[in-house]
Amino acid sequence: MVKINSSAGENRWQSLLATPPAIHKKGYYMHQHGYIGRKMRLPKLQDKPAIIVAAFGSSSRGQAAMDAVEAQLTETFADYQIYWAYTSEIIRRKRGLPSLLETLAKVESDGYRKAVVQPLHVFPGTEYQQVKETSLYFPGLRVVMGETLCHRWDFIEDVLAEVSGDFLTGAGEINLLALHGTPLAADPVNMVYMGIGHLVSGMYDNVYAATVEGIPHIESIASQIRKDHARTPFSRIRLIPVMLLAGIHVEDDLMGEKGSWRTRFEAMGMEVDCPTITCGTQEYFKGLAFRKECIQFFCQRLQRALDIMKHY
Q1: CA distances from residue 31 to 13, 22, 28, 35, 36 in whole angstroms, order as listed
Q2: What's the whole-model pTM score?
């Protein structure tokens, strides 16, 4: 019978356990892909949630407005780490910007287990729903979604109050709110677009609302304006974008040289303009991102989401 020296074996293992886990004198290494190895390489977990701003993005002229939004968010939420994500695949390819999935993965790898995602969408349409679905089911992160600029009817009234500062108010002068709209008939956000048209017609005597894509359709609204114009002639109409960035939709669809809203109303004998703003040495059409009060509204949506996160 062979006798095993159990005490010697126990002493050897006790010696190994007492040695720091990185390296042992006799060549015992902790495997870098083992469970303990992975745990030791993980970054320290962050106490505060990360902030992820989800934007459509801009490829050129709209960047000046986006810079203003970023500056205000950075100042207001200086105690938080702010990440950016971009929902437009075209803009991501052009500028090498991260998608929402890439940014969520970056946030998780940086040691965050909580994040607030604040979309820079004006209305809660299909794209907002896509951002929400991507964010809420991302593994490893507990996410709270911020609301859109016009997520509630009182929010819409606040935005209208801000925009109304640019309304024409003289005799024979009217205003037309230009909403983005959606081509999807089944999108629930169509109710919001229709509701805004009904809301402004009741609140103001000289304000209409139409969308670039969807309803209220510009054809039907232009027909209504033509009928009203026949009864009480209008001399001037102002096209006011209710869009975050007054980019190609405003430059081409609203104020373009051919087949635009401007040429449509000029054919009725009206003078047409669109609010502008000077930033640096350049003049831009005035989207919501150039309105400081609207940026503050986004800050309020984000702060509310951060307050909710305190309970999770």
Answers
A1: 18, 9, 9, 9, 8
A2: 0.83
